[in-house]
Amino acid sequence: MAEKFTVGFLPLVDACLPILAAEHGFAAAEGVELSFVRDVSWATVLDRLLYGQSDAAHLVAPLAIATTLGRGRPAQQLAAPFVLGLNGNAITLSQALAESVCPGDGLGDPKAVGAALRDEVARNLASGRKLRFGVVHRYSSHNYMLRYWLASCGIRPDEDLEIVTVAPPFCADALGAGEIDGLCVGEPWNSVAVDRGAGRIVLATAQIWRRGVEKVLAMRADRIEQRRPAVEALIRAMREAARHFVDPANWESNAAILARPEYCNASPDLILRAISDQLILRTGGTPFAYSDFMFQYREAANFPWVSQAQWLYTQLVRWDGLPYDANEAVKAARVFRPDVYRSALKGTGDVLPGASSKVEGSLLGPTSVTAQQGTMTLTENSFFDGAPFDPDHLEQYIASQR
């Protein structure tokens, strides 16, 4: 009898791996049966997971950490044994703001756009107005990436401009209505805003952190231990789905699946843009090639690096205005579960890193690294400001950002 999982998700392209694992039979081949519950906000996805209406969730990674640490609600320990992808988000500005800070037809340079935005923010403040940006949740990589970029460019989030929460399916509506001046969201919602004439894509978050962690498959930690063999089977199925997802021969068929009403309920053409790294940045424009806009498979992209969880913890502390706490740092790091990922894929021939933590943002080009299984080369993973993150110096890193 198949092991059944109900998976909560939002209508985003990066919910693709569990969906495609089910649609292409990879889950069934592992003895797993998947059903899905679509929601419109991350808060609801989390509620379903915590109250047992779902077994697993497509979830923004910082929210899994915040929930474990009891931010905003009683603490419940979550675990993330699988990263669903790296990056895949963009920053889209209103037409007028985009023309002011990012002239030209392509993606902007993060430093140049940030400097121009700083001037625009100052002009607005002088006239008594704060620009307002939308992110999908307070505890989201979107929020942290946006804030990291703004702060590095000399803009003080919460003081110089306002950041509000907008659920992904409503981001294009909010931008079109003039309620926000810019947003950071995943696909297809940037492309929806572009097609409606509401905004222009000016940056990909991969330009801020080239290999930034994005969504994870999250579960209650106790449920992972209760269902360990089935969870490992699900990991193998999603890894097969990732291999299928990145093959250009499958892009159109996968876009058609994800576009269906029960999943993203969007145009397959919009979804194909993200999958194929060919975004249309402005209304009526032509496709703009940006490699690895989404990063779902190579370089063990699905491996839950502990150092990635630790970087997210540094941003949680930074933007919540909290002191560094060694015990909480350990709890945050333990949300990511490389041990489960390793045991799921051991003996399959798939690549497994030799370490579970690394210095993030330290590579500018291809670098061979040790592997537990297979051979492994990592490529550029830098932050746009060139500042690496060493997880052995958490407290110093946090202090350097204040």
Describe it.
With about 400 residues, this protein is of the alpha/beta class. It has three domains: about 5-85 and about 210-265 and about 295-345, Periplasmic binding protein-like II (D-Maltodextrin-Binding Protein, domain 2, 3-Layer(aba) Sandwich), CATH 3.40.190.10; about 90-205, 3-Layer(aba) Sandwich (D-Maltodextrin-Binding Protein, domain 2), CATH 3.40.190.10; about 350-400, no CATH class. Helix content is about 40%, strand content about 20%. It is built from 17 helices and 18 strands. The protein has helices at about 15-25, 25-30, 40-50, 60-70, 95-100, 110-125, 140-150, 170-175, 190-195, 220-225, 230-245, 250-260, 270-275, 305-320, 325-335, 340-345, 395-400, and strands at about 5-10, 30-40, 55-60, 80-85, 85, 90-95, 130-135, 160-165, 180-185, 200-205, 215-220, 280, 285-290, 295, 350-355, 365-370, 370-375, 375-380. The protein has a five-stranded mixed sheet with strand order 2-1-3-11-4, sandwiched between helices. β12 (about 280) and β13 form a beta hairpin. α1 packs across α11 (about 230-245) and α7 crosses α14 (about 305-320). The chain is globular, with a radius of gyration of 20 Å. The model has no long low-confidence stretch (mean pLDDT about 95).
Write the layout of secondary structure elements.
Layout (H helix, E strand, L loop, with lengths): L2 E7 L6 H8 L2 H4 L2 E7 L3 H9 L5 E5 H9 L8 E6 L2 E2 L1 E6 H7 L8 H17 L5 E4 L5 H12 L9 E4 L5 H6 L5 E5 L2 H7 L3 E6 L10 E6 H6 L1 H18 L5 H8 L9 H8 L2 E3 L6 E3 L4 E2 L10 H15 L5 H8 L4 H8 L6 E2 L13 E3 L1 E3 L2 E3 L15 H7 L2
Helix pairs in contact: 1-11, 4-14, 4-15, 7-14, 11-16, 12-13, 14-15, 14-17
